Every structure is written in C-alpha cells, then in structure tokens.
Amino acid sequence: MNLAVALLTTALVIIVALLAAAGAGKLARLDGATYPTALTRAATTFTAVLTLATTATTAYAALRT
C-alpha cells in the first residue's frame, strides 16, 4: 500500500511539474521570447517545482520523526 501511494504521489508531482513547465513556456512565447529562451524558462520552472516538492517532502519527513 505504501509503495502504491509513493508511486502515485511521484506521478502526480511530475504531472504538475510538466503542466507548470508547459504553461511557463507558452507564456514566454506569448511574451515574444525565442524558442530557446522559452525552453529555458520551461526547464527552470520544471526544476523549481521538483525542488519545491522535494523540500516540502523533506520538511514533512523531518516533522514526522
């Protein structure tokens, strides 16, 4: 049961990160950025969301122990 919850949570975080990255890339293109710049902004957003999720999980784990 715990493994299933961990896998579903990981999948959900990755999906949210991909959606945020796609939104950031689209907004960058609408703002007039070139494709490489938009891709860089999307990659930065994807990394930021994953980092935030990791930090929140670490903080939550520290509070539980």
Topology at a glance:
Blueprint: H1 2-30, H2 35-64
Helix pairs in contact: 1-2
Structure characterization notes:
The structure is a single chain. This protein is an all-alpha fold and 65 residues long. It is 91% helix and 0% strand. The protein is built from two helices and no strands. The chain has helices at 2-30, 35-64. The mean pLDDT is 95.
Low-confidence stretches: none
> In angstroms, what separates the terminal alpha carbons?
20 Å
Mean pLDDT: 95
Computed structural class: mainly alpha
Helical proportion, percent range: over 70%
What is the makeup of the main sheet?
none
Please count the helical segments: 2
Please tally the β strands and state the result: 0
Describe the global form. Answer: elongated
Strand content bin: under 5%
Rg result = 15 Å
Outline of the structure:
The chain is an all-alpha fold and 65 residues long. 91% of the residues lie in helices and 0% in strands.
Offer a few descriptive terms:
0% strand; 91% helix; mainly alpha; 65 residues; elongated
